[in-house]
Amino acid sequence: MNVKEYIESGIIEDYCLGLLSPEAMQDVARNAELYSGIKNEIEAYENALAKYAFALAENKPQTLKKDIFAALDNLEAEENISAENLPIINKYSDAGNWLRFVKPLLPEKLNRSSIIHELPAKNGIEQFVYWTFDDVPHETHEDEQETILLLEGECRCYIDDEVHDLQAGDFLSIPLHRSHNVTILNGPVLAIVQRVKVA
């Protein structure tokens, strides 16, 4: 068995979310006993779900159940990303799923310094695909919460005096009213940038 391909198929996420048939659930459980990589991936995904649930519990206990189901719906949406059903990126987002969605939207090679592809906006949420060799100059957002999910490359994000080195798979949330800029370390960098309007 090619464990890497098996994991990248998305079956682990479906298993952890209980979306598989009983037979398929048993099959994944058997494979987890045979292959430590599969077992480790299941444990990592379950831990991520648990951390997300605990984070929600600390911040919003009165809406915990609703938020957990929303998070699970978002994870399921990431398994089948489409222009009509774009999930919200967060620290649990799967960069591999986003990369599979984004690649067909872009040319094979970046033949200029950058490409910005706007994705369909909804409910005050804007998402962009950024593919660039160019550094991003200083900016500050007063009424938009900006988050970044890095899909390829490496960059360094400066938020006031803080420095955040990002590589493929990393997520970063930029607080409101904070000056920030990005330096490309190993490009081109491919990322999903999300801006959510706040009151």
Can you tag this structure with a few keywords?
2 domains; globular; Jelly Rolls; alpha+beta; 37% helix; 199 residues; 6 helices; seven-stranded antiparallel sheet; single chain; 31% strand
The CATH class of the largest domain, by name, is Mainly Beta
- Percent of residues in helical segments? 25-40%
Task: Predict the CATH topology of the largest domain.
Answer: Jelly Rolls
Largest sheet data:
7 strands, antiparallel
| CATH homologous superfamily title of the largest domain | Jelly Rolls
SS-derived structural category: alpha+beta
CATH architecture heading of the largest domain: Sandwich
Compute the gyration radius: what is it? Answer: 18 Å
Number of domain units: 2
Strand proportion: 25-35%
Order of helical and strand elements: HHHHHHEEEEEEE
Can you offer a commentary on this structure?
It is a single chain. With about 200 residues, this protein is of the alpha+beta class. The chain has two domains: about 5-80, no CATH class; about 100-195, Jelly Rolls (Sandwich), CATH 2.60.120.10. It is built from six helices and seven strands. It has helices at about 5-10, 10-15, 20-35, 35-60, 65-80, 95-100; strands spanning about 115-120, 125-130, 135-140, 145-160, 160-165, 170-175, 180-195. Strands 1, 2, 3, 4, 5, 6 and 7 form a seven-stranded antiparallel beta sheet that branches. Helix 4 packs antiparallel against helix 5 (about 65-80). The N and C termini lie far apart (about 50 Å). About 20% of the residues are buried.
